[in-house]
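Problem: given the chain below (160 residues), write out its structure.
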Amino acid sequence: MPAAAAIRRLEAGDRQGLERILEAAGVFNSEEISVAVELIDEAIAKPGGDYRALGIAAAGGIIGYTCYGRAPFTEFAYHLYWIAVDPGVQGTGVAQRLMAATEDAVVSLGGRLLLVETASKPSYARSRRFYEALHYREAARIRDYYAPGDDKIIFEKRWT
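Solution.
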């Protein structure tokens, strides 16, 4: 992990770097990137709103982020909407650190359930292994959701 990487709320100056990270990840299409950037903008404009975001910054700038929020109409369920880490620092513990901070934030807000949606296509295999290594379990699978042969997989982690 980069030395002195710090977790913090996202700031307006992070937007361009985050958009670059989303594009460089190589797994998100242009529509997904557009939605991710909209949520980044919302989280920055309205801290404490429906969408919350944490970033991790090192000396060279922002290197990753998560976006999460309470599931509407629920008492204690939250969604992880996005996680993205600069490909140059993947495998260094940045994503694990971001997830731990996000989970802590969810719990501090009264959350007891965090849901993560991902795809079954091969390009998302690393993401699925990542969630499993963090003790998320597959809670549901919707066949052919994104496209024929590409299922929606919902992982969950619970706290009591």
